[in-house]
Design brief:
Length: 162
């Protein structure tokens, strides 16, 4: 009887430890390898053949919101632009795509068109980093395509107290 009681206690103890580990992962918001992209990310964008006046490397802060919403802000003061708004979806295991747009402005602050970024994203196995490739399209105020380039990105998930 004591041996059986010991086995039951051991199984219950292991179940409790597993429950605590899962609860901790849920409370801290960490990915724990389950392939979720929701959260805020610090991103380094390397632009291939940037247009004149655009730096080849810019920083971006991106937020993936549950339900497929997306917000983005870029760091370059040489690019006169507004915040990015868009959508994302999961396409496979740790694989995502997103599309977002932002308004562009000329030196006088007048509307000059918009930029559309479409990305393919690969999330790391631990969920703390991702890499992406992007197609970048610039449009005039009438929606006519002005030019296309590409970019690569590396990102790190923001955490509390970072």
């Amino acid at each position: 009887m004591n041996e059986r009681l010991m086995k039951v206690a051991a199984v219950m103890g292991l179940a409790a430890l597993l429950g605590v580990a899962l609860l901790r992962a849920t409370v801290t918001g960490q990915d724990t390898g389950n392939g979720k992209i929701e959260g805020t990310w610090m991103v380094t964008v390397n632009i291939d053949n940037p247009p004149p006046g655009v730096p080849p490397v810019v920083q971006s802060m991106e937020s993936y919101i549950r339900g497929g919403r997306f917000l983005e802000t870029g760091s370059s003061s040489s690019i006169r632009r507004g915040p990015g708004h868009g959508e994302w979806l999961q396409t496979g295991h740790r694989e995502f795509t997103s599309t977002f747009r932002f308004f562009r402005f000329d030196a006088n602050g007048s509307y000059a068109g918009f930029q559309k970024n479409t990305r393919t994203i690969q999330l790391s196995s631990d969920g703390t980093n991702y890499t992406a490739t992007a197609k970048v399209e610039n449009f005039d105020t009438n929606g006519n395509l002005l030019g296309t380039t590409s970019a690569t990105e590396t990102a790190q998930r923001m955490e509390v107290n970072q």
